[in-house]
Amino acid sequence: MITLIKPSVQLEVEYLDFLLEWQQSGESIVPSVVSKTFLPLADFLEEQQQEEQVAPENWVTHSTYWLYDGQKIVGAVNFRHDLNDQLQQIGGHIGYGIRPSSRQNGYATEGLRQALNVARERGLDSVLITCSADNLASGRVIEANGGQEVESYVKEDGTRVRRFNVPLS
């Protein structure tokens, strides 16, 4: 069973394993806020607590969660409490990523489902979620959670970003 949990020092060994796998894969860690945890974990946890209340410049307040299967951290979710102009185009309310060895097991779909519950608890009526147009798996995860595609965004380099509205009521 997968659960969405707040990061904690009790799972530091599991988290270091999670980070190491991402590093060895050569992929960028998703969501990107998780890559900041190359700091000592206690520092990251303190920073995350602060950023849930006060946003750093050019950011919004946000909460980070781990997807935990009872033995290892299989992924991470970042929930942005509000949207700024940039997040309206790219990023949206929720970013998520599954470690390479744990993909195609339904973890992203379940993790996003649980993240949508967090958004409901915060009183949101809908959320915006985006993904790269070439990330077909992520598009399917969003659609499986009720995502309805809205107008795409094209970045300056020509890359298309799919944007989805997910009603929460």
Structure description:
By secondary structure, the chain is α+β, with helices and mostly antiparallel strands. It has one domain (3-125): Aminopeptidase. 33% of the residues lie in helices and 27% in strands. The protein is built from five helices and seven strands, in the order E-H-H-E-E-H-E-H-E-H-E-E. The strands form two sheets. A four-stranded antiparallel beta sheet has the order 1-2-3-4. Strands 5-7-6 form a three-stranded antiparallel beta sheet. A hairpin with a 4-residue loop joins strand 2 (62-68) and strand 3 (73-80). The longest helix has 15 residues, at 107-121. It starts with a strand and ends with a strand.
Broad shape: globular
CATH topology annotation: Aminopeptidase
Helix-strand pattern: EHHEEHEHEHEE
The number of helices is: 5
Tell me the count of domains: 1
Low-confidence stretches: none
Distance between the ends: 25 Å
Bin the strand percentage: 25-35%
Radius of gyration: 15 Å
In helices, the fraction of residues equals: 25-40%
Q: What would CATH call the architecture?
A: 3-Layer(aba) Sandwich
The CATH class assignment is: Alpha Beta
User: Biggest sheet, open or closed, and with what strands and sense?
Assistant: 4 strands, antiparallel
Q: What structural class do you assign from the helix and strand content?
A: alpha+beta
Strand order in space, largest sheet: 1-2-3-4
The pLDDT mean sits at 91
Number of strands: 7
Q: What is the assigned CATH homologous superfamily?
A: Gcn5-related N-acetyltransferase (GNAT)
